[in-house]
Amino acid sequence: MSDGYFIDFTDVIMGMGALEAPAAPPEPAPPEAVAVLYEPPALPQDSFQAPVIDLRQPAELSYGDLPWQATEPAPQAYAAPEPVTYAPEPAPQAYVPPDPAPPAAALPEPAAPVPAPPIDTGAHPDLDRIADPSLRGEIAAALASPDARTAETAATLLQQLANPDDHIDQAFNHTCVAATTQKILAETNPAGYFHLGMSLMQTGSGAVRSGQVASVNPENAAWIAANGGDAETRMNMVMQAALSELGNGGSTFDAARDASFDGEGRLTGHGLHYQEALDLNSAVLGLNTLDGSWFSARLADRDGPGADPTNPGEAGSLLADFVGQGGAGLMVPMQTSEGSHMVMLQGVDLGAGTVSILDGYGKKREMSLAEFLPRFLQGRSGGDDMGTDGTAATVRQATRTR
Description:
Number of helices: 12
Order of helices and strands: HHHHHHEEHHEEEHEHHEEEEH
Strand content: 5-15%
Radius of gyration: 58 Å
Helix content: 25-40%
């Protein structure tokens, strides 16, 4: 208050009414819930469980609070290892050389070879004609066998080997291929011939060059024994019956009827067909085979399409070349008055204009080129029924491995 100016607050205060007590401060709002970022799943009591940290009340965890601390063993005081005592090494020994080996005993001198006893050829002079000493000894032993059949078979085979021209003959009307094969085998492989003949007569079967087995069936063996005549004829029959059956493509050769039949009893042929003859030659001999049609084609290749395969002057030199390449000879078909036969062409003499053949009866003979060439070109292999279908022989040369 100053200068008489006075403010009375009474009215003011009275007009405002009684003063109220100050209001209590409002209650603070409860804190908002804080989300738990990770809640591990419940685990079995014996499983390891990481500690859960409540983010609302962070806890100060020390290393010692971690659960794996309890699994670590308490540190142990260091203990020094016990000292190891080593045994002293033995002192080195002076080298003592071994005792020298005693001298080896002297080897005895080898005994002088004992010569084989001489073979008495007095009773069998044909033994002197057997060049192979091993085969000669085999034959001599068989000749001396106490078994009469073995001795007789060996004597027959010795005769045939010593002189095949006189003792090997065609035994049936339609076995020219087998007879020719038999004779060539005796001349080119005497040991193979002797072994085959002995085996056929003793057991009824025997192996040939290819490993195949030639055999005489019981019916043929009985018929030959009853109708064969002397030992030489029986041997030829047995050989040719076995070789025919080997080559006839699975049919059975009937010696009594001189023909081959299938399992149903149907006739399959007299003698051997061309391919069957080639197969037999391959199995037993391994000789090259020359076909007339193939020969004509090769002559035309050499001399031109107009070359005449029946002209000795043109065809003779080519034929001689083939025979020279064939070694022991060539198997060729040849037409005769009795039909077609398989023969062995053994040589060509261009100077004399002749050929040497071993015919279907097992006989050697000379023939002029002028006579031989047409028969060769017309020939087929086998017996009477060969080529009845009217077809020409296959154009080829079947080369057989030796």
